[in-house]
Description:
The protein is of the alpha+beta class. Helix content is about 45%, strand content about 15%. The chain has helices at about 1-30, 70-75, 75-85; strands at about 35-45, 50-55. A two-stranded antiparallel ribbon has the order 1-2. The longest helix has about 30 residues, at about 1-30. The two termini are about 15 Å apart.
Amino acid sequence: MKRLFDFIVSFCILLVFSPVLLIITVLVYLKLGSPVFFTQVRPGFKGKLFTIYKFRTMKDAVDNKGNTLPDSERLTTFGKILRSTSLDELPALWN
């Protein structure tokens, strides 16, 4: 019963926030390019793995040796705004 309730509530919230999700998707694509979403496999309840979805907030910048630059250099101003308002977390409703 709880699973059904969670699904219905999440679906309704996704519908309400779909215009915001669409706008942020377009802005992330224009400012950071593709892919728009950051995905990561994480352990969940009882260690079961699941994929978390977030809007991407960092550039894929590397140094001249091909090493990824530190987070502080890859995080964009737009990404900082998304993180400070927690808008980067909205796609997690899909989980």
